[in-house]
Design goal:
Mean pLDDT: 92
Low-confidence stretches: 35-40
Order of helices and strands: EEHEEHEEEEHEEEHEHEHH
Shape: globular
Strand order of the largest sheet: 7-11-1-12-13
Radius of gyration: 21 Å
Structural class: alpha+beta
Helix content: 10-25%
Largest sheet: 5 strands, antiparallel
């Protein structure tokens, strides 16, 4: 738990901005939904922008980081989860509490109102908690799809992975196809952590924890079948205090070309908090 209390005053101190490359170590599949099926196309296409280029939705990356932190914090018991949706077959359960120092709620936000727990009595939240973490859509770095890669792809920018589900009784194969962004592709990730009080400065460590957890997990669909292994490289960490926006003061570059381990060491340093001034 954080040191936040119900009396903690929120006022912008500054913004911690992380820009990094997300490199696909295996094929990546983030689905576009059934509405994007095309005749002759893959059964499960990837999401693409208006120019037909694959990208990683900020909501997908943000949601994965949240779930990893919930798991790491031991907050997946039924009594710790609430329903966002109870539609049969489409239930959505996430962690949320009424504790002012709950770091998950501080990072990802909390809406006021009545919340129904998966198990146990519900609870009321009287005030909203603004989300500190903003994750932008991550565009594909086109230069990362080399000419050699294009010659072996099924489409200009993607590949099709063929899979079979085997019936355990008849041994009949049920083929399916999955569109993926190929290994070697890179996406440009931008994450902004709003620091609204002195206590928020400690949240930077939880963000880096989530990113490191993701490197040993999977992003997108089919992670248990080999998809979605990623790595973050060439990170740039910048601090923009309140003066940057109010008076045009200079930003402070805290790290450049770093990996996540180096960023964690920086954030854990005794002098890190002092660098985040208005």
């Amino acid at each position: 738990m954080s040191a936040h209390t119900n009396e903690t005053k929120l006022q912008l101190v500054g913004k911690l901005i992380l820009e990094t490359n997300l490199e696909c170590l295996t094929g990546l599949h983030i689905g576009a939904g059934k509405g994007s099926l095309e005749i002759g196309g893959a059964d499960n296409p990837v999401v693409k922008d208006a120019f037909g280029r694959p990208y990683i939705p900020g909501s997908s990356l943000r949601g994965k980081l949240r779930s990893l932190l919930e798991q790491s914090s031991g907050l997946l018991a039924p009594g710790d989860l609430v329903y966002l949706s109870r539609r049969k077959g489409q239930e959505v359960r996430i962690h949320q509490s009424n504790e002012p120092g709950d770091e998950i709620c501080l990072l990802f936000g909390r809406n006021p109102g009545r919340m129904e727990r998966v198990e146990g009595e519900g609870f009321d939240t009287s005030t909203a908690t603004p989300a500190r973490l903003t994750v932008s859509d991550a565009p594909l770095e086109m230069a990362s799809i080399t000419q050699q890669m294009r010659e072996n792809l099924d489409d200009e920018l993607t590949e099709v992975k063929n899979e079979n589900a085997i019936d355990r009784i008849t041994s009949q194969a049920n083929p399916r196809t999955l569109e993926r962004v190929p290994a070697g592709a890179r996406f440009q990730v931008r994450v902004v952590l709003d620091v609204l009080c002195e206590e928020d400065k400690a949240l930077a460590a939880r963000l880096l924890e989530a990113l490191r957890l993701l490197e040993d997990d999977a992003l997108g669909g089919g992670g248990s079948r080999g998809n979605g292994r990623v790595k973050f490289t060439a990170a740039r960490l910048v601090w923009r205090g309140k003066g940057y926006y109010a008076r045009g003061a200079s930003e402070s570059e805290l790290a450049v070309g770093a990996d996540l381990a180096a960023l964690q060491a920086l954030v854990a340093g005794d002098d890190f908090v002092s660098k985040l001034s208005e």
